[in-house]
């Protein structure tokens, strides 16, 4: 069963992205049983505050929460402008230094899917380079005023430690000339090391061409690649566990009507993500249709479990063991190939056992071959840090 609070969010998406009638949304906003604190929690987790605010504006509805969401949305719109300019600047900077680089997710989706309408919530700038260009790219960014979000100067020794990180991304920060704080998630991979999909960074660069991006001619992914990014990140890694991910899929399908489902399936087959795509389409067509389906059949257990994430608004960090196990169960169920619990645990342990400078300092580090000892000391170090607090 879908809660009234989640239904309110879903109806707001239907109004803003699919031009649906506002009647259901309007009735829900006037429901005295609606828990507005819970609405606030769901909005933050699902990251659709700008869409919700626009839906409220469409029906001239206002309350304390909507006012706060409106302030956030206006700040987000300003941030999007700065981040868009900085993204195109960085891409052009890399082009001048003969390093191929691509915009990834946020600003790319905002411009190419949302046509720069201030409807997408975003935290930072995402840039992706090929692994062989990572070291030179980082040196260029540091020379341009950025600082690593981890401790230490960029020596080649530190670089090798960064490169080993299973997350395949590192943060960089800078204060711009106008005093604006900018954060980059700098990627050299498109998945954590334990995701075994037959797709890599080079797939994103194959069809990239020079094109207009925020008024600069820089390297931009093709439409095929944008779809691959969306499917890989939102479905492959994220398992469609936030409404924001569904919004991007809805907008992609609406923006590129010529991009038929058969094309999506063909791409998904090569990526090993057919079940992931089918689940995304099922969720989109089921919960964002003209008449919302409040119950899911027993055969759609995965959809029920995904729906629970939308409704409970729990992040699946390793600290939240219950949510993490629920995520792992959904992840396993969505794979095209059989995926045992043993394999899932083994891959996670292998990747997490490798020490890296992005994490808290471990109490003790063993040689890499001592996988389980290093994993144990990582967990023990985390517990020790919590106890010290």
Polypeptide structure, described:
The chain is an alpha+beta fold and 389 residues long. The chain has 17 helices and seven strands. The strands form two sheets. It has a five-stranded mixed β-sheet with strand order 1-2-5-4-3. The protein has a two-stranded antiparallel ribbon with strand order 6-7. Strand 6 and strand 7 (216-220) form a beta hairpin. Helix 1 packs parallel to helix 11. The longest helix is centred in the first third of the chain and has 33 residues, at 64-96. It is globular and about 60 Å long. The two termini are 39 Å apart.
SSE topology:
Layout: H1 4-18, H2 23-29, H3 36-46, H4 49-58, H5 64-96, E1 101-103, H6 106-112, E2 125-129, H7 134-143, E3 147-148, H8 156-163, E4 169-175, E5 181-187, H9 201-206, E6 209-213, E7 216-220, H10 223-237, H11 243-255, H12 261-271, H13 274-287, H14 301-312, H15 321-334, H16 341-353, H17 371-388
Parallel strand pairs: 2-5
Antiparallel strand pairs: 1-2, 3-4, 4-5, 6-7
Helix pairs in contact: 1-2, 1-3, 1-4, 1-11, 4-5, 10-11, 10-12, 12-13, 14-15, 16-17
* Low-confidence spans: none
Largest sheet: 5 strands, mixed
SSE string: HHHHHEHEHEHEEHEEHHHHHHHH
The overall strand count is: 7
What is the end-to-end distance? 39 Å
> What average pLDDT do the residues reach?
89
Count every helix, treating DSSP H or I runs of 4 or more residues as helices.
17
In short:
The chain has 389 residues and is an alpha+beta fold.
Features:
389 residues, alpha+beta, two-stranded antiparallel ribbon
């Amino acid at each position: 069963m879908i809660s009234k609070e989640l239904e309110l969010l879903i109806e707001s998406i239907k109004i803003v992205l699919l031009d649906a009638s506002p009647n259901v949304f309007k009735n829900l906003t006037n429901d005295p049983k609606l828990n507005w604190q819970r609405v606030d929690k769901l909005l933050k987790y699902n990251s659709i505050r700008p869409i919700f605010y626009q839906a409220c504006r469409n029906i001239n509805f206002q309350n304390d929460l909507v006012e706060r969401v409106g302030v956030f949305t206006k700040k987000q719109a300003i941030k999007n402008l700065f981040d868009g300019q900085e993204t195109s600047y960085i891409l052009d900077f890399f082009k001048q230094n003969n390093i191929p680089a691509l915009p990834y997710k946020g600003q790319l989706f905002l411009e190419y899917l949302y046509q720069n309408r201030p409807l997408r919530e975003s935290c930072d700038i995402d840039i992706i380079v090929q692994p062989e260009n990572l070291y030179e790219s980082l040196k260029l960014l540091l020379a341009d005023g950025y600082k690593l979000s981890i401790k230490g100067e960029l020596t080649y020794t530190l670089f090798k430690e960064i490169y080993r990180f299973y997350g395949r991304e590192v943060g960089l920060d800078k204060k711009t000339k106008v005093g604006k704080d900018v954060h980059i998630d700098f990627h050299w991979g498109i998945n954590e090391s334990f995701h075994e999909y037959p797709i890599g960074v080079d797939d994103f660069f194959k069809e990239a061409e020079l094109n207009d991006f925020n008024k600069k001619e820089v390297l931009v992914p093709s439409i095929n690649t944008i779809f691959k990014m969306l499917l890989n990140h939102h479905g492959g890694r994220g398992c469609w566990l936030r409404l924001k991910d569904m919004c991007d899929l809805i907008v992609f399908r609406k923006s590129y009507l010529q991009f038929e489902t058969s094309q999506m399936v063909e791409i998904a087959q090569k990526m090993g993500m057919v079940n992931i795509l089918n689940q995304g389409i099922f969720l989109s067509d089921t919960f964002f249709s003209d008449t919302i389906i409040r119950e899911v059949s027993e055969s759609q257990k995965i959809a029920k479990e995904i729906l629970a994430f939308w409704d409970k608004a729990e992040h699946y960090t390793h600290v939240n063991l219950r949510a993490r196990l629920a995520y792992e169960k959904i992840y396993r169920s969505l794979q095209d190939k059989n995926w045992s619990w043993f394999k899932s645990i083994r891959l996670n342990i292998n990747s997490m056992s490798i020490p890296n400078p992005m994490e808290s300092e471990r109490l003790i580090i063993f040689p890499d071959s001592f996988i389980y000892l290093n994993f144990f000391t990582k967990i023990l170090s985390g517990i020790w840090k919590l106890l010290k607090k």
